[in-house]
Write a structure and sequence with these properties.
The protein contains 30 helices and no strands. It is elongated. The termini are far apart. The C terminus is likely disordered. It is an all-alpha fold. Helices cover about 75% and strands about 0% of the residues.
């Protein structure tokens, strides 16, 4: 790293007539000298004072500086930095990701008239914001006098700005107000506002309020009573615009979330904040302090704009909100809260386990086709998807698909976490979920094992051969061995379970956002073919089942195809689903006969199945839980409260996580009773 010159050398090096790149490099070196070792803001402030003292002692240098500064203002436009810096020009994640990555990896050049590009070279670290904020009022005033001509601002003609700085502020305000107005006039925003918000026409009046402020500043001065009154009216109008725009969120919650619309609403909020900062710099009695605060904020904004991590965090939160809201709506149906619902869950799981027994039979039958890796994976995925959808349509259940949608349903209860009893009710839901999973696993495994044994026994009697031969049976026991990669593959399957819930939440949100149920119900092409009544039934059924169908189909094909695709890249990954694995071990036992009970490999495989279930559930639930917490913006402090409450419940009432109460807790009666019944497919 090159050594920064001392102050005397830097002052002597200023040259107003140097090429643009050299002039900008000089300013970069000067700010690097002020920054020093970037450890102590007070030390940097002391360096600023030393710079001011040296400039005051050298009138000849101050004259050169004024010429340099005038040349800088003539060649560099300040308005884009003040008005548009920090606002992403695009909503697409990949394009913005590539833009930020290029800015991080490719070096910038000082030979530019774009101050937004030069700004990243002048003030490249968050430490710059710290020392700028640490500047005291006396130092800021001396800096202002240094930047201005010796005689102060020149008298401007009536109707013209007093200084280039005031002109830049007014231009930036003009640009920012136009951007706020454009957002309010955008059809995707305006059509989703509430009726009172559209009737108020707040965005229509905004430009007129700003023009009133601009005219008062130019004609009577920024400190005049007319300017202050116009500024107050503009502030009130901006607040009305913000409130009217926020009514769009209610529409999004009811009719599906659009990442693009949420992005525009967040940009609108940030632009309104920028307008207020610019107005402070223009109108306040302490413009030096307001300007320093604005520059420091621009430094931090620049860091966030270059941060790939910040982009990922922001996009993840938007996607989380988009998916979790839909999953929460679906997940309520899978949580049992009393003994009666617990028994119902066991019954549904028994039905699901029986169908998974048939899935196991078909799975082994596909091995005999000797398909290639891809087509074998596709056939397996089609098998899984078919039976998973059949389980869904019969209103039965498969245990490990539940946590990915029940976690958002629980976290949705934390929206009002400050309300009395919110954390306790959430802990109750965790206990309800765990009990539901136990019921589902018991039912699934309790049905899949006897069904597979019966199928294998029937095949032996009818065809003379069991479901699989002895060699394949030994291979199955080896694959399920507890000490092998079973646990790793079970965790990997948990990721796929979570991924299927993401796909389901996204598709359901897309379905609702584009009002496809309304299209099926009312579109003339559908009503002509189906009839009005039948089209209405199909619309209701699709609206209630689009999430479940998507989750089951996507999960089936993920279980079949993802290992095949990873295998193409040399990654050995297999799926370990507790119900499917239990069925495979049962098929192996049926093939090897009663002697298998004396084989240690069988019991190691049984132990492996016992591990697969908890890992499937834990991984899928944890990922869904984290996603839902991000969607609800739960703080670290509140997460600590939740964890403490869970630990306390485990100590005081551990059995509440295993067995339901005799009757539903009164706190949950209303929530449970409000759940709609399972939908039936429409009659055709």
């Amino acid at each position: 790293m090159a050594r920064t010159p001392d102050l005397s050398t830097l002052l002597d090096a200023i040259d107003p007539d140097a090429p643009m790149a050299q002039r900008h490099l000089w300013l970069i070196d000067l700010l690097q000298w002020v920054r020093g070792d970037a450890r102590d803001p007070a030390a940097s402030v002391s360096r600023v004072r030393l710079l001011l003292d040296a400039a005051q002692a050298r009138p000849d240098w101050r004259a050169r500086w004024q010429a340099w500064w005038q040349r800088f203002q003539q060649t560099v436009d300040l308005t884009p930095l003040l008005a548009d810096f920090g606002f992403a020009p695009r909503t697409a994640f990949m394009s913005e990701f590539g833009h930020r990555l290029r800015r991080k990896l490719l070096p910038g050049t000082p030979e530019t008239t774009d101050l937004t590009e030069l700004f990243a070279l002048l003030l490249p670290t968050r430490f710059d914001a710290r020392w700028i904020q640490a500047l005291d009022r006396d130092t800021l005033q001396r800096l202002r006098l240094l930047l201005l001509a010796p005689g102060g601002p020149k008298d401007a003609p009536a109707g013209e700005p007093d200084s280039p700085w005031q002109a830049a502020l007014l231009d930036a305000l003009t640009f920012s107000i136009s951007q706020v107005s454009a957002t309010g006039f955008a059809s995707e925003i305006r059509t989703r506002m509430s009726e009172p918000a559209r009737a108020a026409r707040s965005f229509h009046a905004l430009p007129a309020h700003y023009e009133s402020l601009r005219r008062a500043v130019l004609q009577q001065g920024a400190r005049s009573e007319a300017a202050q009154a116009a500024a107050q009216r503009l502030e009130e109008q901006l607040e009305r615009c913000r409130q009217d725009a926020y009514t769009v969120y209610a529409h999004l919650e009811a009719h599906g979330i659009s990442v693009g619309i949420v992005f525009r609403l967040r940009q609108l909020r940030e632009r309104i904040l920028r307008v207020r900062q610019l107005m402070d710099c223009l109108l306040t009695e302490q413009p030096d302090r307001a300007t320093a605060a604005l520059i420091a904020d621009l430094v931090n904004t620049g860091q966030d704009q270059r941060s790939v991590r910040a982009l990922i965090a922001s996009s993840t939160q938007l996607t989380a909100a988009k998916v979790a809201e839909r999953s929460a709506e679906s997940g309520e149906h899978y949580i049992t809260r009393d003994a009666a619902e617990y028994r119902q869950m066991v019954g549904k799981a028994l039905g699901g386990g029986a169908l998974i027994g048939l899935t196991t039979w078909v799975k082994f039958g596909l091995y005999g086709l000797a398909l290639s890796a891809f087509w074998g994976g596709f056939a397996a995925g089609l098998n899984y998807a078919f039976f998973f959808v059949l389980v869904h349509l019969l209103h039965w259940t498969v245990a490990t698909k539940q946590p990915a949608v029940t976690a958002p349903a629980m976290v949705a209860k934390l929206r009002e976490i400050r309300a009395p009893g919110a954390v306790r009710r959430f802990v109750d839901e965790v206990a309800n979920l765990l009990r539901s999973q136990i019921a589902a696993i018991i039912g699934n495994v309790g049905a899949v094992v006897p069904v597979v044994l019966l199928i294998s026994l029937a095949l032996s009697w009818g065809l003379g051969t069991p479901m699989i031969d002895a060699e394949k049976a030994q291979h199955v026991l080896h694959d399920m061995h507890l000490l092998g990669p079973t646990a790793l593959f079970a965790a990997f399957t948990g990721v796929l379970l979570f991924a299927s819930s993401i796909v389901a939440g996204w598709v359901e949100n897309w379905f609702v956002f584009h009002q496809l149920d309304s299209a099926v119900r009312h579109n003339p092409r559908f009503t002509r073919v189906l009839g009005v009544a039948r089209a209405a039934r199909w619309a209701d059924w699709l609206r209630q089942n689009v999430s479940g169908l998507t989750a089951n189909i996507s999960l089936g094909f993920m279980l079949g195809l993802v290992p095949a695709v990873l295998g193409f890249f040399g990654v050995n990954a297999e799926v370990r689903h507790v119900t499917l694995s239990a069925g495979q071990v049962a098929a192996a036992a049926a093939s090897l006969g009663p002697a298998v009970l004396h084989d240690p490999a069988f019991w190691w495989a049984v132990a492996g199945v016992l591990v697969i279930g908890p890992l499937n559930l834990a991984v899928s639930f944890y990922l869904a839980f984290r996603l839902a917490m991000k969607a609800q913006a739960i703080s670290d402090v509140n997460r600590g409260r939740i964890n403490a409450a869970l630990r306390q419940r485990l100590r005081r009432a551990p059995l509440s996580f295993l067995w339901p109460p005799r009757r539903r807790d009164d706190a949950h009666d209303e929530d449970a009773d409000s759940q709609p019944p399972a939908s039936e497919p429409p009659k055709t």
